[in-house]
Amino acid sequence: MTTIVMTGGTSGFGATAAERLATSPTTRLLLGARTRTAATESRIPATPNPAAAVERLPLDLTSLESVHSFAASVRDRLSDTPIDALILNAGIIRPDTTARTPDGYETTFAVNHLAHYLLARLLLPHLSDTATVILTTSGTHDPATGSPLATPRHADAHLLAHPDQDPALDPRPKKAGEHAYTASKLCAVLTARALSDPRHTHPHLLTAIAFCPGQVFGTGLAHNLSLPLRTAWRLLGTPLGRPLRLVNPNFNTRAEAGTTLAALALGHLTPPDRHLYAALRRGTLTWPALSPQAGKDELSQALWTDSAKLAGLPD
């Protein structure tokens, strides 16, 4: 039996991945989510085949207290059973950086990075010695992809948690919100690098993967954005958006992204030696080199240490 813990499995390509995992005959899936949506209930079998199981546990990624409670529930459910794969997939993008979590941190950074960092730290002792940890990132973290979104200026955890203290914060709310998103996705790659470092994970021999699903329209990612953007995002996720695939190699369907994420979690797809960044391009998984920022050891180490302080953990 393969035991998998997952966030971000209730909508979009994450729901597709959860569906694939739930119907695997040898998989037990523990799924963290704020609510049960009708779409989720219809896609993920409530009673999959007898050898598989799906257990939904409450998780609010805007609250570090909720992350602690979720991790405790996972530990109680599993007892001595180790976790074979941890999928940290949930994510948001906002039109600005004004929202704060109950802990006082900027919401995009808190949800996309800090909550997942804390969850990984809390569950690290309960991972199998050869577990896989997958963090969903985005190619927008790398300026070389040519994304129209504001690319990261830094991965300073303190400034991302408190953007009002960032002296270079873009005064345009939309661009500040874009930076919060792309910087949080840079944090995902840097965290994957840290999890690949035995200094942080000994005695585990983890496989850490930063997975970029590409541009997957029709997901719940855009639900905080303006109505025109939400409408365009939804429509481009229908067959109307398929022609984009001809001109944009980053475009992937929800089925392609979800199936690939599930295959990575189950070990059906594995990284080449010394690679941890996986990018889906026109339905094909590639393993690009890291961006200059993501390749800096000092940034990875600083993010690990500073995130621990924000989350109330020892280094």
Largest sheet: 8 strands, mixed
Number of strands: 8
Low-confidence stretches: 37-43, 45-52
Q: Oligomeric form of this entry?
A: single chain
| Total separate domains | 1
Shape-level CATH architecture: 3-Layer(aba) Sandwich
Any idea of the CATH class? Answer: Alpha Beta
User: Largest sheet, order of strands side by side?
Assistant: 3-2-1-4-5-6-7-8
Q: Return Rg in Å.
A: 18 Å
The portion of residues forming beta strands comes to 15-25%
CATH superfamily: NAD(P)-binding Rossmann-like Domain
- The span between the termini is 33 Å
CATH topology value: Rossmann fold
Summed over residues and divided by their number, the pLDDT gives a mean of 89
How much helix, percentage-wise, in residues? 25-40%
- Element-level helix/strand string: EHEHEHEHEHHHEHHHEEH
Shape: globular
Q: Provide the structure class.
A: alpha/beta
Total number of helices: 11
